[in-house]
Write a structure and sequence with these properties.
CATH class: Mainly Beta
Strand content: over 45%
CATH superfamily: Galactose-binding domain-like
Helix content: under 10%
Largest sheet: 8 strands, antiparallel
Order of helices and strands: EEEEEEEEEEEEEEE
CATH topology: Jelly Rolls
Radius of gyration: 19 Å
Number of helices: 0
CATH architecture: Sandwich
Shape: globular
Structural class: mainly beta
């Protein structure tokens, strides 16, 4: 895990390395491998997806480590290998879902809040605009009896799309949450961030995960 202070606000920032995350099948070399020496990585090792149809990554951080009275966002920091497949945003294919869950306080009075967003990890054909996700689309699907069926995907105005950074890596926002302010200067509890694509049964390869960064979010 790496730690820093945001220059703009002085608030604390953390990044959970891939090793600090919970990755389903992460200990099976047929599914994930650990790669070293990637340029721009803040950590010596990153996790590279070999082949899975069940993609699930999550990480936790104690709220007491963060700055009180601050709104944070969590970002998956990653890149895509040249031989990747199954990660692109395609019409008719279920996209990943990201969930941010905050458990505030301690038992038995702890409270839980959760938000969920649709995530795009890779644009089709190098498409860098999010407009394609935010309009209603129709597509044909071939049924098991080889007949075609016209389906409609409703517009998703809240889909989170990736942004390429100057160091060559990409990031996509997984969600946001607020840390309460208080006289004690810290809040008991934990925030859990997860990324899942488990319903589409689509085989995937080539996602290279550096970690999940948690830093202050500003509206302007």
């Amino acid at each position: 895990m790496s730690f820093g202070l945001e220059r703009r606000s002085g608030a604390k920032c953390f990044m959970l390395s891939a090793r600090a995350l919970s990755i389903v099948w992460g200990d099976d070399p047929a599914c994930w491998i650990w790669t070293t020496g990637l340029p721009g990585s803040r950590f010596p090792e990153v996790a590279e997806l070999v082949d899975v149809c069940w993609l699930e990554i999550s990480g936790k951080l104690n709220l007491s480590l963060l700055s009180p009275g601050t709104t944070y966002a969590a970002y998956l920091v990653y890149t895509i290998a040249d031989d990747s497949y199954g990660l692109e945003c395609n019409i008719g294919i279920l996209p990943p879902k990201a969930t941010v869950t905050v458990v505030s306080g301690t038992k038995p009075t702890a409270t839980t809040s959760s938000t969920e967003h649709t995530i795009c990890l890779q644009h089709m054909h190098g498409e860098e605009e999010a407009v394609m996700h935010r309009r209603k689309q129709q597509y044909m699907r071939l049924r098991k009896d080889y007949r075609r069926k016209l389906l409609t995907r409703e517009a998703d105005p809240d889909i989170r799309c990736p942004r390429r950074m100057s160091d060559g890596w990409a990031e996509v926002e997984l969600g946001e949450f607020a840390v309460a302010g208080g006289a004690t200067g810290s809040e008991d509890g934990v925030v859990e961030v997860s990324l899942k694509e488990i319903d589409g049964q689509r085989w995937k390869r080539g996602l290279i995960v550096q970690g999940i960064e948690i830093r202050p979010k500003h509206t302007s």
